[in-house]
Design goal:
single chain; alpha/beta; Alpha-Beta Plaits; 320 residues; 2 domains; Rossmann fold; seven-stranded mixed β-sheet
């Protein structure tokens, strides 16, 4: 990068990384980039470029953008990220590539990230269509129109895909027909929208990030679900009556810490769908759930990630 950078330019930071280290690399780039980071899993285009097929055996690319108006500050951010990545490599994780940088003009930056989000099919019927893509819907397709913006939740991360698939399974068993659903950490609103399209009559979304709430509301309107999906800034407890189904795409440590509160949000006999769990933390999460009266009834795995579906036993009471 040179000092001739346009006042409106951005510096793109990109790292090719094995799926095992995606979360750690995302966190490192997110420290220096004001808008956070995005993950581009390996995929090949199909259906004449209108769809995508993920390939979990190939590395993903983590990207972030740093303002380049001040060349010295942008250089410092890149060096800081590079040093942190070097420390991370010392832990012996599977391959982490070199940090690559390039300048992106303001006019191009607004659309640059969109190239990494093709149409994605999840499960048997769910199709995630970025709002700038076209999709020829097949019979039975349930299409979710999504503009993730700066909020987490594009469908490309295994934790989100696992949640979507688990919601589809719950719908097959009638668990979403006319149901009240709580989406904890709603992000872009993708899980809220999927729940509503799969049969839920009302979805409440909670997130501590106001940007996520704005994204959820906007995406709900895009899918003509603005009246059935209500999102607000907040965390647990929700302050609402227990729900038929609660979905929580968080991380293992948070799921363990919130096990009792999550249980309290589920009506007796209702279901909790919990994702964001590394396989080596599954036993810990399952034990925390069992200790509060949440019985794991189903699990699914993709790579190193696990989703657990747990039913609240009728005998379990609320935590004092």
């Amino acid at each position: 990068m040179t000092s001739r950078a346009s006042p409106a330019a951005w510096l793109e930071l990109a790292v090719e990384v094995d799926i095992e280290a995606v979360e750690a690399v995302s966190e490192i780039l997110g420290r220096v980039a004001p808008g956070g980071s995005s993950v581009e899993p390996a995929f090949e285009l199909v259906d004449e470029g209108l769809g995508a097929r993920l390939d979990p055996t190939r590395p993903a690319i983590v990207r972030a953008y740093v303002p380049a108006r001040d060349a010295a500050s942008a250089h410092r951010a890149a060096r800081e990220a590079e040093a942190s990545l070097g420390h991370l490599q010392a832990f012996g994780l599977r391959p982490i590539g070199e940090l690559r940088t390039r300048l992106v003009d303001e006019a191009d930056w607004a659309d640059a990230w969109k190239a990494h989000f093709p149409v994605l099919r999840v499960g048997r019927h769910l199709v995630i269509r970025p709002t700038w893509r076209r999709h020829r819907a097949a019979a039975g397709d349930i299409v979710l129109a999504l503009d993730p913006g700066m909020a987490f939740g594009t469908g490309f991360h295994p934790t989100t895909r696992l949640c979507l698939a688990a919601l589809e399974v719950a719908a097959v068993h009638g668990g979403l027909d006319g149901a009240r659903v709580l989406d904890v950490g709603c992000g872009s609103g993708i899980l809220s929208i999927a729940a509503a399209r799969l049969g839920a009559r009302h979805v409440s979304g909670l997130d501590i990030d106001p940007i996520a709430i704005e994204a959820t509301r906007a995406n709900a309107r895009r899918n003509r679900l603005g009246r059935r999906i209500v999102a607000r800034v907040g965390s647990l407890p929700s302050g609402e009556p227990p729900f038929d189904l609660v979905v929580a795409n968080l991380i293992a440590s948070v799921l363990v810490a919130l096990a009792g509160r999550l249980r309290d949000e589920v009506r007796p006999g209702g279901l909790l769908v919990a994702s964001g769990i590394f396989e080596d933390r599954e036993a810990e999460v399952a034990a925390a759930f069992a200790g509060t009266g949440l019985e794991v009834v189903e699990r699914s795995v993709e790579g190193d990630w696990v989703v657990l579906s747990a039913r609240r036993t009728a005998a379990s009471g609320s935590r004092p």
